[in-house]
Amino acid sequence: LVGHFTDAALHEAAQWAKPFALIAPALKDEIAQFAVSPSVRDIGVQLRMIDWYVRRGLLVQALTLGRELLVTKTCMVLDCGEPLQREARVRAENALNYTAWSKQSSERKMADPWTGPQPSETDLKKFLAFDRSDQVIKLWSAIREARNDVDHAGMNEQRLRAGRLAQQVQGLSEDLAYVLGGEFTPSAAPDLVTIDLSTLHDGAAKLADLPAYERRALELAGEGRTVILTGQAPIWMYLRVAHVLHGKARRLLYSSPVTGEIVVFNHDPFDEPR
Predict the structure, then answer these.
(1) Taking Cα atoms as reference points, which of 180, 99, 178 lies closest to residue 144?
(2) How far apart are CA 237 and CA 160, in angstroms?
(3) pLDDT number for residue 183
(4) pLDDT of residue 207
(5) Cα-Cα-Cα-Cα dihedral of 170, 175, 177, 181, to 10°?
(6) Closest CA to 67 of 178, 186, 181, 172
(7) Rounded CA gap, 113 and 120, in Å?
(8) CA 202 to CA 170: how far, in whole Å?
(9) 27, containing H or E segment
(10) What is the pLDDT of residue 1?
């Protein structure tokens, strides 16, 4: 897909689809990090995708891919062959579920006895020999509980509040990177970005340069972050920049010494009212 963003394609977009032309360079940068060979064994690119989901508040997607990534890693630890084969994934899930069950207290195991298929001794030995098997099981259990909470719409006595669930998922990419051997360093991009509009022009904003101002604002804002607009700029520039950031920023605020921070829009589904 990245290869389709050629100079010719960008030129055509500028001619026939001007709104798309504004975001095409940023879109190319966003998807370039995922442009690798489509191998399920490429854990690094999947970790980057989870981090991408987390930073944009796509928590269900992050949980789902995180769970499957642990299954894939377990397939590799058990040497199950092709990790996409159903038999291999079922075998890995059995090892994960049984090990998680076996680490519960005796009382808990008596109340909830194991009824699933028994993993082979060979698989259990291989998995437990993995130096981070304990961390894998801890993360596997946490993801399972979080997904159950989401799948059942919080209909249980010990449900997590949405904000607490969001906090748990936000650490998912870092936890996965650790248990998988540091194969990926999560993005250090800040969640809060301040854009001083006065730095986008040379002292006198010009309408003719508005597309350039918008492109620069999009580059600075990134995806799924909280963005604060500030600085000396004409009202039309503020309005247009706010418009192009709609759908890109998770939250948009205006700030000045006189008004303080004013929320323009807030599309964070897990930002609980206070």
Answers:
(1) 99
(2) 42
(3) 47
(4) 93
(5) 180
(6) 172
(7) 18
(8) 39
(9) helix 18-32
(10) 44
Rounded (to 5) percent helix, strand, coil in the chain: 60, 10, 35
Question: Which one, of 82, 77, 80, 112, lies nearest residue 98 by Cα?
Answer: 112
Rounded to whole angstroms, how far apart are CA atoms 147 and 62?
10
Is this prediction's pTM over 0.85? no
Q: How far apart are CA 179 and CA 69, in angstroms?
A: 11
The series of mean pLDDT values per 10 residues for the chain, 274 residues long, is: 57 75 68 62 78 79 90 92 91 95 91 91 94 90 83 65 64 77 50 86 90 91 89 94 93 90 83 50
How far apart, in whole angstroms, are the C-alpha atoms of residue 53 and residue 63?
Answer: 9
**Residues 68, 70, 73: CA angle, nearest 5 degrees:** 110
Cβ contact 109:115 at 8 Å: no
DSSP 3: G
Question: Which among 200, 198, 66, 189 has a CA at the least distance from the CA of 136?
Answer: 66
For residue 186, the model assigns a pLDDT of 47
Distance of CA 48 to the CA centre of its chain: 8
Q: In this predicted structure, what is the pLDDT of residue 137?
A: 93
Residue type, 89: R
75, 88 contact by CB (below 8 A): yes
Tokens linked to 256: 């000045």
pLDDT of residue 2: 46
Q: What is the DSSP letter of 246?
A: B
What is the pLDDT at residue 274?
42
Phi, psi torsion values for 260, nearest 5 degrees: 75, -155
| Secondary structure (3-state) at 201 | coil
Burial class of residue 136, CB neighbours in 10 A (0-12, 13-18, 19+)? buried
pLDDT recorded at residue 188: 45
